[in-house]
Amino acid sequence: MKRDSRLSAVLHALLHMAERGQPMTSEELAGCMMTNPVVVRRTMAGLREAGFVRSAKGHGGGWEIACDLSAVTLKDVYDALGAPQLMAMGIHLESPACLVEQTVNRSLTTAFAEAEALLIDRLRTVSLAQLADDFRAHVAAHKRNLERKP
User: According to its record, what are the GO cellular component terms (predicted)?
Assistant: First the structure.
């Protein structure tokens, strides 16, 4: 089963947009997201509807951040993507009358729901601004390490 990496890719693109501070074309964002411009435009449309980005056509146009990064959480971005399924695992439904299958499925369904709730709660605690700050700190540390090398 292929993993859904849209949240990671979109967060990657949003950080590039925030750091750039000027519009980025769908082609530039496609390079960041390792996809094609059509996918970028389709994905960004949901973010535009949520008010996180805006687009301008013509020379010098493109996609840019349209929100306060500190007011948007990773959960907000996840929701703007249509709240894709978080868990790749599921339950076996081949013998619904089997009491063993019913027991296993009740246990797994509860465990999956609890795990998903924990992840959603975590996504609510991280803002795009925190992610951007973490990125900048990582860049600064990387530069310091490079300066120390002979």
Answer: cytosol
Rg (CA), the chain: 20
Amino acid letter for position 113 = A
Q: Which structural domain, as residue segments, surrounds residue 40?
A: 6-148
Q: State how far the Cα of 129 lies from the Cα of 39, in Å rounded to an integer.
A: 25
DSSP string spanning 49-75? HTTSEEEE-STT-EEEE-S-GGG-BHH
Residue-wise pLDDT for 45-97, tens only, equals 999 999 999 998 888 789 999 999 999 999 999 999 999 888 778 888 888 89
> Looking up tokens 């530069």, which residue turns up?
143
pTM as predicted: 0.84
**Cα–Cα distance for residue pair 1/4, rounded to 1 Å:** 9
